[in-house]
Amino acid sequence: MSEQGATKLSPKVLLIDPVRMLPSLLIPLVGVLFVGGFSPRSFGWAAFGVLGTIVFAVVRWATFSYRLVGDRLEIRRSLISRSVRTIPLERVRGVDISTPPMHRLLGLAVLKIDTGASGGGEQEGELDGVSVAEAERLKDVLLRSVRAARAAGAATGLDGGPEGHGSVAAPPLAEGQAVHRPGGASPDTSLERPFEEPQEHVIVKVPRRWLLYGPLSGAFLFTPFAVAGGAIGLLFQWGDQLGLGRDAAWNAGRWVWDHPILIVAVVLALIVAMPFVAAVMYAVFNWDFTLKEREGYLVAERGLVTRRSVSLEARRTRGYEIVDALAERRAGVVRMWAIVTGLGDSETRGQLLPDVPRPVALEVASQSVGPFTAPLRPHPPVARNRRLFRAIVPWLALAAVPAVLAVATATPAWWIPAAVSLVLAGLGVPLGNDRYRSLGHGYDGVRLLSVRSGSLRRSQAVIERRAVVGWRLRQTWFQRRAGVLTLVAGVGAGKGGYEAMDVSEEQGVAFPAEVTPEWLTPFLTRD
Amino acid sequence: MTEAPDPPAGPLRDPHHRVSPKAVRLWLLEAVVALVLFAAGSFLLAAWIPSWSWLPLWLSGNSWLVPVVVLVPATPFLVVEPFVRFAVHRWELSGDVVYARSGFLTREWVFVPVSRIQTVDKAQSWFERLFGLATLEIRTASHAGSSTIQGLDHTVAAGLAEHLARRAEELRDDAT
Hints:
The complex is a heterodimer of chains A (527) and B (176).
Chain A: H1 13-35, H2 40-62, E1 64-69, E2 72-77, E3 83-88, E4 94-99, H3 101-105, E5 108-114, E6 125-131, H4 132-155, H5 166-180, E7 200-205, H6 223-241, H7 245-257, H8 260-286, E8 290-294, E9 297-302, E10 307-313, E11 317-325, H9 326-331, E12 333-340, H10 346-349, E13 351-357, H11 358-368, H12 381-409, H13 415-438, E14 440-443, E15 448-453, E16 457-464, E17 468-475, H14 477-482, E18 484-491, E19 497-504, H15 505-515, H16 517-520
Antiparallel strand pairs in A: 1-2, 2-3, 4-5, 4-10, 5-6, 7-8, 8-9, 9-10, 11-12, 11-16, 12-13, 14-15, 15-16, 17-18, 18-19
Helix pairs in contact in A: 1-2, 6-7, 6-8, 12-13
Chain B: E1 17-18, H1 22-48, H2 57-60, H3 65-88, E2 90-94, E3 97-103, E4 107-113, E5 119-123, H4 126-131, E6 133-139, E7 147-153, H5 154-171
Antiparallel strand pairs in B: 1-2, 2-3, 3-4, 5-6, 6-7
């Protein structure tokens, strides 16, 4: 465990900060110049503004410091008010290093410390602008001292709070890793060996040709429209700022309205652009996705422009979630997230794999948590009726409104929305059936349970039995009439609860009784 | 995917303990307050509606319909709810597992093993204090594995909270 004096961020951030503030400063500056009629005085004010920004950045840099003291990291700010944020090292759950473009140019990085605080980003630490070497060093120190403290606790048998439990939780995982690992690191990497060189072992490096699967996930598909919308908004805003006024905008709008072919062409172009833009965006975010195992941490690195590295403590992994959209299922690819206890923002941080072929994902899953081979049990047929009802009836109701209006007002145009709704209701038949087919729950009889649901975005969660902290059965009035209920496994990780939707009343009791018989038996009336 | 047979298990039995009978009075009081608020709101709306020119005449002319439409369906629900709740709400602590049932239109059964409990809170609202009742909030690391038992007698709630906290300390199992 190292001690050191207070350290400042790299002075090179001073090159980044003013540039980052520039966009928000640009419009006022231009405004000052315009209002002042480009007089020497207005240039003086503008220069004053720029100077102020730089001074602000310098003062902020000079008053920000961090240091490692014993078993905690202190982050001090004294710009406006003095504040010291203290992060006990035992609370560190993971360290996340990212390098946005400007940072990368200057050899800097942003270090984020995940403390697993449930209160959002409030209690987390961020060091924006340390050198890459320093970031790596800090990461090693932070993660190592955590492990050292834990190892010491385990060795002396001190059950020092929740962390002392490590000695109990670790063995099954270490065993599983040693057995399944195909060569590479020595089998004892996951044992506690606090003071040696970090040993790395690449689990998966996603080949670049798999980036082509990206658009199948539906992610970023609507980016072209978002960009177009943003551009129009910006145009109006800047038009106002530059004194073009509403009239010009109005005239331009009218001119466009008079050329409907142009609108159609633009919309068509945007639609055609959808998969390509999505592919590019996806590739930028998931470039060279690499999943490594380093000293008991799962490290996921990705990104082209901003390279992001997320460390998850393998010991805290309690399961995984496999997600595939409709098109992905056709292509046989899936995405995967880890279910980790005490991980904030698990939707972005917990991602273990982007789109990869299913067997690859299952291999990684069985290495890090264990293979789930048990069959999933289907839910009762009445669940199918409920899925179908929900997928069809709302659209039928929606179709009825314009249909009635069409008849009542004798306006044939109303038939168009009615027809669209009817088509959507028709699509509800395969959708409802597919949603029913997705439903399932299972238990391998030893360690892992699983629930699955969804169609357009199907998701299967596999969770360790020991992560279950309670069960909840929920039955709405409609479910009671259908004789089904929703079973929720409370899990102190990931989303907090994983649902088996519309199980029969017998299954709803039998499943918890099978997974955790010691909890349920006292409350069953066995005949 | 092959089908696996569901393992046999008998149906659930009711939890042993009812909540305090005083809870019915509390819930009735709450229902009356809700009813008064609904009534006041709907009468206010009815008095206001005739001044809205954009409404069709048949609606703004018959604004007395608003309280009727609001209160006629709401009243039986609010009056029946306390009694249904009293029949449904039950709890039990056996084998170091808290088993609680609750709900009105939507029923919930919750099983929380004491070994996974993180905090036990005993809360008392202003109305609950009036009747000597309390609500017990049993929290685990997951919202889905947490339980709230309403309408307990204050002394029962205090004793249960004390017992659960002590027992949770002994059984603490932090695999989560």
